Amino acid sequence: xxxxxxxxxxxxxxxxxxxxxxxxxxxxxxxxxxxxxxxxxxxxxxxxxxxxxxxxxxxxxxxxxxxxxxxxxxxxxxxxxxxxxxxxxxxxxxxxxxxxxxxxxxxxxxxxxxxxxxxxxxxxxxxxxxxxxxxxxxxxxxxxxxxxxxxxxxxxxxxxxxxxxxxxxxxxxxxxxxxxxxxxxxxxxxxxxxxxxxxxxxxxxxxxxxxxxxxxxxxxxxxxxxxxxxxxxxxxxxxxxxxxxxxxxxxxxxxxxxxxxxxxxxxxxxxxxxxxxxxxxxxxxxxxxxxxxxxxxxxxxxxxxxxxxxxxxxxxxxxxxxxxxxxxxxxxxxxxxxxxxxxxxxxxxxxxxxxxxxxxxxxxxxxxxxxxxxxxxxxxxxxxxxxxxxxxxxxxxxxxx
Amino acid sequence: xxxxxxxxxxxxxxxxxxxxxxxxxxxxxxxxxxxxxxxxxxxxxxxxxxxxxxxxxxxxxxxxxxxxxxxxxxxxxxxxxxxxxxxxxxxxxxxxxxxxxxxxxxxxxxxxxxxxxxxxxxxxxxxxxxxxxxxxxxxxxxxxxxxxxxxxxxxxxxxxxxxxxxxxxxxxxxxxxxxxxxxxxxxxxxxxxxxxxxxxxxxxxxxxxxxxxxxxxxxxxxxxxxxxxxxxxxxxxxxxxxxxxxxxxxxxxxxxxxxxxxxxxxxxxxxxxxxxxxxxxxxxxxxxxxxxxxxxxxxxxxxxxxxxxxxxxxxxxxxxxxxxxxxxxxxxxxxxxxxxxxxxxxxxxxxxxxxxxxxxxxxxxxxxxxxxxxxxxxxxxxxxxxxxxxxxxxxxxxxxx
Lengths: 401, 401
Description:
Number of helices of chain A: 12
Oligomer: homodimer
Strand content of chain A: 15-25%
Order of helices and strands of chain A: HHEHHEEEEEHEHEHEEEHHHEHEH
CATH architecture of the largest domain in chain A: 2-Layer Sandwich
Largest sheet of chain A: 5 strands, mixed
Distance between the termini of chain A: 28 Å
Helix content of chain A: 25-40%
Strand order of the largest sheet of chain A: 6-5-4-7-8
CATH class of the largest domain in chain A: Alpha Beta
């Protein structure tokens, strides 16, 4: 079976044949055992076995070295893990960030082949982005001696709301130079392949769900604390988009209607107190030199009381916002991500306490399994671009954006 | 076909036979034409036609007088509308309110047969509620010469979060005397029928979705302004429950962390400014006599500037809370309900303006179809108890609570 056939199998959304179902499951999940495939697909074990034999014979599916985590430490020999043949196809993920462009090339076995980042001037245009992405993708394919004929699709993560109806970038004030852009029109002609687009925080949530801290969870909230505050709501395994692509914009909850002006045009937004933004400025005033987020966290860990207090203040503000999210959504799981999470329990402990103070359902009111759990995210800097790869691997299977 | 057979058809969740599918659709939707049944079920028109003939012959399905609204005013003769035979079964809906118990008896054609309300002392017990509900149901069945043998199930709406895992009432501080109660244990022995339970606001959202302002919508937010503020989030046609049943508790968003104490034990909750609560107290001070919510709305409509300002203040506070909900969820539709909606545009206009000021995605940023729409709810006082009937008609078909 050649690459063209795999492409058509992945694009087939009728979910009809067992072959289609097995290929889509492996595309979505990476390496799986035959038993896992049977459980996840609902197909009979014998059907899975026959289908896998055919797919292995034709070279679409191969054995991998990865062990089945469920069997590790248990009795019996470990199950054989299978994945799509890495040679059978590649995906490109790209992040259109505020000041950088990231590109990742991965194969259909979920292995990352190449990763490149380019720093951009602020307010770069879609045409400049297209040039940079084309160059980064060419370089990655050349360096790894890959053929672009095997490219299955391109996922694009965007720093701003994407309209779920037409894929256009919205909300002029957040990414002014990209307002109204249809990303598929920009990147479609470059690649001649399906283009999948979503907001960067929605992509980050997808990455945590597919490979990170939310693996195995279908309902959770991603809350990201970095230079701004972002996030996403996942319900039933799908990221909520909102009618205008504006769902999960936690950083712009109006905490203080008469507070300082935010870049979004509103006043007193959560991210003005619950991100690195005020935090870096205050730390720089204290030490009278330019500091990175990492510097401040390092100094806090080394015991500087001022930096510790700044992290606690950020955690308390974030906990207020999360308390409101808890009162509205009452999620089972919150994945806290972004560079602020590198502060570890210095951040998470006061954040949990502040959440508990502000949210409606208190821990003491409910049994442990009905409490909202907090976990740090697995990915810090490449979550969105990984999720862009995930858009191709998952949305190819179910529904294009 | 007798009542027992209809019961088993409604309880059959395998969605297997066309007969089962048609019966479940009519149970969920009320009156439908054959063409609507074909569209909603995906069954072939010929299959629907044969199935309906069989069901009509056996008396499970009957013609109704109700016209197909899609055909009204159009050309051609109106389509025949069909419903389940009203004689084939009844449902009971009950509301366990803070100071009252409501009971509705409806038949499977969605017609309301009887409705009764009993005012209760504050902090009444589950045993007292069981006595009152048994008496009200007996009275309704006796007055309308109905046999309880046709009772298909009982839906119960509760003023407080219900744990979605075990159906127990949570959050001791909201309904202290009911904390930890398993409603199925209280009402199950009374009726020997399936008991369906949900929070009163979730039931209200179901009523608006099945028969009210959100008919035909699968994604919306219900925002209820009355003596308190409540609500629900509907996504993909299902009400979000949250891990502890706490989803949609909009009245308890912490707006001012150092504000006055709320009955929930937190400070500065939204409902302290965005409900009738502060409003009635201020109006009573102004007029030096006891006033009902309706009095204040009437005086505002008659031009009293003080009462008008109170409604505007309430709308602005509610718009701030809704602005946060918009930033987090970005819903296509908000159904505003509760008695405050009787103020009409006196409330809705400033509410929309305040929402627009505080939410992230502004109307001017997006095309009209990507804006959040606001509509008043259809039901004011009986929404929760109607939704409790809806729990039986819908959950019987899909999944018990």
